[in-house]
Structures are given as structure tokens and as C-alpha cells.
Amino acid sequence: MKQGAVLIAGGRIIDPSQGLDIIGDLLLMDGEVARVDAAGSVSAPERCAVISAGGMVVCPGFVDLHCHLRQPGQEEKETVATGTRAAARGGFTTVCCMPNTRPPIESPDIVTYVLDKARTEGVVRVLPVACITRGQQGRELVNMKELAGSGAVAFSEDGWSVADPELMRRALEWSRHLDLPVMDHCEDARMTGGGAMNEGSLSVGLGLKGMPSSAEDAITGRDIELAELIGARLHISHVSTAASLDLVRRARERGVRVTAEVTPHHLALSQESVPDCGTSAKVNPPLRTSRDNEMLLDGLRKGVIDAVATDHAPHALHDKQCGFEAAAFGISGLETALGVLLGFVHEGRLDLVTLVSRLTAGPAMVLTGGGPVGGAAVSSVLSGGVPHGLGTLRVGAPGDVTIFDQALEWVVNPDSFVSKGKNNPWAGRRLKGKVMATLFDGEIVYMDEDIAVEVKGLP
Fold first, then answer.
1. Helix (H, G, I), strand (E, B) or coil at 433
2. In this predicted structure, what is the pLDDT of residue 381?
3. Residues 164 and 133 grouped into a single domain
4. In this structure, what CATH number is given to the domain that contains residue 447?
5. What is the pLDDT of residues 178-230, one digit of tens each?
6. Which ranges constitute the DSSP H helices of 38-107?
7. Closest residue by Cα to residue 36 from 403, 397, 428, 454
8. Would you say 414 and 425 are in contact if contact means Cβ atoms under 8 Å apart?
């Protein structure tokens, strides 16, 4: 149920899609952006919720290109209900859920199931990503046309690459026809099988089988060449190596339709974090070197990397409370993403507007194919189920808004997460910067319990 009107008053409104950075007021009416103007110039209509946002940042709702909601089939780890609540708490109003469910998202019926769950139990927008091959077995393509028609917004094998280059070529041909991206996990499994962390002297010292960076680089290079040949849209998921980043950069200079994302953990943590964080730092692709961290941050600053995506991967406690080699890969990261990323802003290594762009307009344009993200009607939908107006506060766009305090310090306590996943390497650490409120489709779906954000006129 949409609230009739919400006025967010006196915040620093940052909307990179419009080059907007002002102290102002934002009015939402009937679930849409109705007006953005200088502070004090927008009057609250009758029966209006008024949020005083002085000293806070107001921006488009964050868009996460890569998260795991685990439903159907792994509800002990996460559900659409708990995962979308975690997303709202992290400032995300749109999440793209990966297809490695049980059964995987490989048929229109399962896409419809996820969308129905999101509509009835979720609190933010869920955009399903479908498999590339049936059962994620790498042998036979799914019916990509049917899946796009049912609402899939992209295709991915998620934690796997398509090993057969001819099959990948055919998938890219179909994706070009549908004008939807293939989201590519780049890993040559022949080089990484049984690996647990980045290959190097540290893995040798810890007695752990390594996963070489060349396994990522090889598939990144192969699939960029295929995308260039076909003219398809290729999105490199969770890029983690400097060499893969350079392949993306050079491909973009040639005009290849390739985009890329990076996770907060591949920016903020390195392989040196493994001894301290234990299984909470076991991810795929693995945490790399500090040099990779620096190059990825530079790529984010310069726009070679279009988006930050969480790769939120919640697990049951027993999946992580075991030996490192036996532990599952993944971090439950929706609720800590902003605080981790703002660390780079506070250190002067990343501009705040750039960060907001990589969480809003950047990922929105990955989904829409690089076109304008502007303010068509909410009901207008692109092919594959992506609504117009993501990542922007243009008039007529969905009333998706994130409000955060970039200076507020807080200590990460996974026991307080609304996600079922408590596997997080920042447990017990102090972060600076926190989401205070999240609005989806004009409705307040999260508000910080401990900080006084004044609200008036709620029914």
C-alpha cells in the first residue's frame, strides 16, 4: 500500500543521473517522485509524512546487481522476505537475485514464483536473473526467450562459468537478440578445483590449495572476445583482479559492450584478511592482493567499473563454523555495504558523488543497456521486466529513496542482522556511515530504530 505523500526535507540530495547535488526537499506522491527543489521551497500537502533529513544524504535507492535470496529450496539460509528486509536496511530498493536456487531459476514458472514471493512477502523490488544452462550443468541452453518474457532481467551461471565456448557464444547470440546482459562469473574451474583462497605464498604458508588469478583472467578475456564478435552485452560479475580489470578497460576503449561490478569486500579486504577473519573471508572469487584492491578502487573511480554489487551470500551457521577448506564461499553483505564503502570516502580515496553513482545510476544503466535512466512512468517496463526510472530521482520515477548519515559510527553485530546469514568479516568492527531510512515505491520500508528521524503526519 503506497503512502499518499512523503516529504523528505532539508537533506543533501545527490542524484548523479541528473548531476544534482543540492541541499533540498524531495516530495513523493502516489509512489513517484513529484518534485525536487531547494530546501524550504516545497510545502507538505495534507496527510503527508515529513522526514527531517538535515545533515543527511538523500539519494536514489541503491540497486544491487548481484545477491542471493536462496528461495526456493534453501530457506534455512535466506528467504525473499528476510533478504529484502536486509536489502532495505542496507539502502537497496532493487536487488537482482541470482539463479542458484533449488531448483534453479531455469523456467518461467520459477521466475513467476520468485516474483510472486517478492510481491507478497518482499519489501523492495526483486529482479530475477535466470540460468544460462539447464540445471546450471553447462550442457544445454535454457529457453532464454521464454525466461525474458516471464520477467528475467539477465542470464548467469552465477558461481560457474560456461566452460564450453561454443555454448557461451550461442548464449551471447540469444542475449543480443533479447538485448539483455549475460552476467559472467569468470573462472576456469580446471585451474581452481578444490581451491579455498587466492594462490600465492600465503596460501602455501597456510597449507590451503590456491585459486590462481589467471583462472579469472582467462575466462574474462575469452568472453570479452566472444561478446566483441557477436555485439552482445556482457557484464563481468565481481571482478577481482587487476588483469581482468585491464581487459575490461581495453575492451571498452574498442567499443565492446562490456560492463563490470566490484564488491565491497574485493575493495576493502585482501588475502591478508584470511588469517584474521577465518571462514568469514572465504569468498569466490577469493580475496586477492592489496595491489588488486588499489587497481579495483582506481577502476571504480574512473568508471571502468560501473557498479558496486554486494554478492550477498547468506549461509547457515554450520556452513561457516567448520574448517576453512570445508566452509562455504560467501559473505552476508547487504547490511554492511554502505558503511564499508564510505570508509574510502572518509579516507579521501573516493568521492561521495562517485560512490552514490556506482550504487544507483551505474547499476541501473547496466540493466538498461547503457541508455538514459530517466523518468518514464513507473508502469513502463523494458524487455525482461526492468522498470524505467531505476537509479534516478527524476520526476515520474519510482519513489525509491535512500537516506543515510555518512558520519554516524556503529559497531557491526551480525546477531542483529535481519538477514538469516550472519557470516560477515566486519563483525565487531566500527564502521562510519549508516542507512537511516529506505523508501520503496513511495513507502517507508526501513527506518533506523536508534536514531531520531522525525516523522509527522503518518496515518
1. strand
2. 44
3. yes
4. 2.30.40.10
5. 999 999 999 999 999 999 999 999 999 999 999 999 999 999 999 999 999 99
6. 80-89
7. 397
8. no
Are residues 45 and 161 both part of a single domain?
A: no
* Domain membership of residue 435 as a residue range: 5-58+394-418+427-456
Whether the CB-CB separation of 260 and 245 falls below 8 Å is answered with: yes
Q: Indicate if 319 belongs to the active site.
A: no
Among residues 217, 311, 405, 441, which one is catalytic?
A: 311
- β-strands 182-184, 92-97: how paired? unpaired
Q: Cα(432)–Cα(165) distance, rounded to whole angstroms? A: 44
Q: How far apart are CA 127 and CA 61, in angstroms?
A: 15
Same domain for 76 and 40 = no
Residues 320 and 326: their CA atoms lie apart, in Å, by 8
Q: What is the pLDDT of residues 410-438, one digit of tens each?
A: 999 999 999 999 999 999 999 999 999 99
Q: Is residue 379 scored above 90 in pLDDT? A: no
Whether residue 354 is found in the same domain as residue 255:
yes
**Integer angstrom CA distances of residue 149 from 180, 259, 262:** 11, 23, 29
- Residue 209 in grid coordinates: 590449495
Tell me: the pLDDT tens digits for 225-257? 999 999 999 999 999 999 999 999 999 999 999
Q: What region does 303 belong to: left with phi over 0, alpha with psi -120 to 50, or beta?
A: left
- Reply yes or no on whether the pLDDT at 1 is more than 90: no
* Chain length of the chain: 459
Averaged over 390-400, what is the pLDDT?
A: 97
Distance between CA 216 and CA 136 in Å, rounded?
19
Asked whether residue 158 falls in the same domain as residue 262, the answer is yes
Mean pLDDT calculated for residue range 102-111: 98
CATH of the domain at 213: 3.20.20.140
Q: Which pLDDT band holds residue 371 (cuts at 50, 70, 90)? A: very low
Span 291-323, pLDDT tens digits = 999 999 999 999 999 999 999 999 999 999 999
Radius of gyration of the chain (CA): 21
- How would you classify the pairing of strands 182-184 and 197-198? unpaired
Q: Are 256 and 220 in contact (CB under 8 A)?
A: no
CA separation for the pair 97, 93 (Å, rounded): 13
On whether both 254 and 370 belong to a single domain, the answer is yes
